[in-house]
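Moderator note: this is an archived Q&A kept for reference. The question asked for a predicted structure of one protein chain; the sequence and the answer are reproduced below.
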Amino acid sequence: MNVSLKHLFISPGHNYYGRHGKGAMDYPIEEVERISCVAGRGIKGDRFFDYKPDYKGQITLFDWAVYERVRDEVVKGELDPKAFRRNVVLAGVDLNGLIDKRFTLGGLELTGSCECSPCYWMDQACAPGTHEFLKGYGGLRARIVKGGELVMGDCELEILAEVEPRSDDA
């Protein structure tokens, strides 16, 4: 199927992850035209690159349609797509349908690990109510099986196979 990569983001640090009770940080999130993905390691220049061996969230994806719903129904105004802190914002596929699937995306090969569950920080990053609104639609965490460059624009996504769910992906 054809999908559209609307935005690609990297950030060198964690603004919210692991920050419970400590307050948010202010690392920039940079929009880029392409990202360099390394199998088993993550995205070069991103905060989760080499985070830990075989990490389930080496790359994160977010649905453009969900972004639009949050913008229109929760924020009811301007909302920068980088607020969600996901690496890839794309249109044309149900991300929950990629959990426990091996698939290609623009030349990469990925396995969908689990939902990128929203946290309470979403209410600060976007608007009050975003955390609750996103439950079940927070995006997708995935592992990079075959690396390469992902470039903004249209590309193909093909589901290759089912993969066994892993206990560490819950």
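Archived answer notes: Residues 2-169 form a domain with the M1 Pyruvate Kinase; Domain 3 fold (CATH 2.40.33.20).
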